[in-house]
Amino acid sequence: MNNRKITRSRYRLVDLDVSNYRLLFYALLVGLVTGLLSSAFRLVLARLAALRTTFQIGEIGQAWQDWLWPMLFTFFGIWFSIFLVKKYAPETAGSGIQEIEGALDGLRPVRWRRVLPIKFIASIFSLSSGLLLGREGPTVQIGANVGKMAEDVFKQSSEEDNPLISAGAASGLASAFNAPFAGIIFVIEEMNGHFKFNFYSLAALMIGAGSADMVVRLLVGSGPVLKTTIFTFEELSGIWLFVLLGLVLSVIGIMFNKLLIGALDLFKKLKVSYVIIALCMAFIITAVGLYSEDMIGAGYSTISHVYNSSFTLKFLLALFIVRFVLSVLSYGSGVPGGIFTPLITLGVILGMLFGGVAQHFFPDLVPDPAIFGVAGMAGIFASTIRAPLTGLALSVEMTANYELILPLIFTAVTASVCTTMLGNAPIYSILLKRVLNKDESSL
Asked: Does the keyword field hold Transmembrane helix (predicted)?
């Protein structure tokens, strides 16, 4: 009898090992497929961005024909994106990260056959239209759905849902920003209440994120996404300035989250056709772009210009206000797109604005205001998403400023702790509750 029990235990251990090794292999496949899809996504967006520059608006006062084409380009992108989402896959609206968190809890379905094509195509149109949205939301949802697809195709048990979907989400974020460590940390930190943590599920995250990033670097390019100066930080007497910046960003995080939800409620109450929404948003984006291209779009070129151009503090303030409002409206319109990149752009602008003021009053403590621009990226992410480690990892990986980890820690921790004490909930938790409440009301 004892020998039989030992034999059975050994068989169970062998089966468990085989299952775990199979999970790691599937995580590799998920990462590779997500990397391929994300690479195609980024390359198409780059081509469309180049096409949009051919419709580049000139100066105010030009003939209406000179800016009619950009408005039509923007209108069609927004209209077609909303059309696809509303008709075929409503869960693809917005970033989709809240949908993934709900799926990991078994509260939301993962309809990958619908989501994968609709999220990919609709996001291409929405992001190329000039709206202030990022590519990371779509790639995270696409990656997570690839994880669910792997589970269905290879007929795995429902227990494999969680690690494969999580590995796909990590792969999606890693491939959006060339930031594999941030992708891993994001799932562990932001999805900690949804992610089933064990050694093999963590290994699956690492394999998925690493393989996806490898594919993107081979097909799209390697190196940090944002080309900035590599800074050093040696003046410890100025560390309190980063704490102060964190306090400012904690308030900004509360404002952003409340206004984002308010924008979603506003567009829901309007009850107008998506043609009207697309037309209004196209007019706003075109009119603002006529004044300054830095005020529209995801923000990559804006960040570069903020770091490398000598913008006045007055213009930085105007840039921050306009992009803040347009980021909220862009997400509220219901098109697919992430909020990471618009948030990071706002953090850079506010950080540069803060650094410029600080340099005026404390020139000995602030050798370059751009240091606060990098810190602003981590701080605003921590105050809105309530994920300080992810914000820290993203800021460092996207700019290669590894020597700024200490001041970034002070900024991110201060922003996340203070915004929590002020009652600000993580934005994706709020968005998930909205989705679940909508499901209940429709029953």
From this structure: yes
- Residue whose C-alpha is closest to residue 387's, from 144, 175, 195: 195
pLDDT tens for each residue of 146-163? 999 998 898 876 655 688
Distance CA 49, CA 424 (A): 35
User: Left if phi > 0, otherwise alpha if psi is -120 to 50, otherwise beta: which for 299?
Assistant: left
CA distance 139 to 41: 8
With CA atoms as reference, report the closest residue to 80 among 341, 336, 342, 340.
Answer: 336
Rounded Cα gap, residues 91 and 141, in angstroms: 10
pLDDT tens digits along 226-278: 878 888 887 788 899 999 999 999 999 999 999 999 999 999 888 888 899 99
Class of domain 2-219: mainly alpha
For residue 151, what are its two tokens? Answer: 């589970």
What's this model's pTM, rounded to 2 decimal places?
0.90
What does the domain layout of the chain look like in residue ranges? 2-219, 236-442
Decide if 2-219 and 236-442 have a common fold. Answer: yes
With beta carbons less than 8 A apart as the criterion, state whether 213 and 180 touch: yes
C-alpha–C-alpha distance, residues 289 and 219, integer Å: 31
Domain 236-442 has CATH 1.10.10.10: no
Give the residues across from 336 on adjacent strands.
94
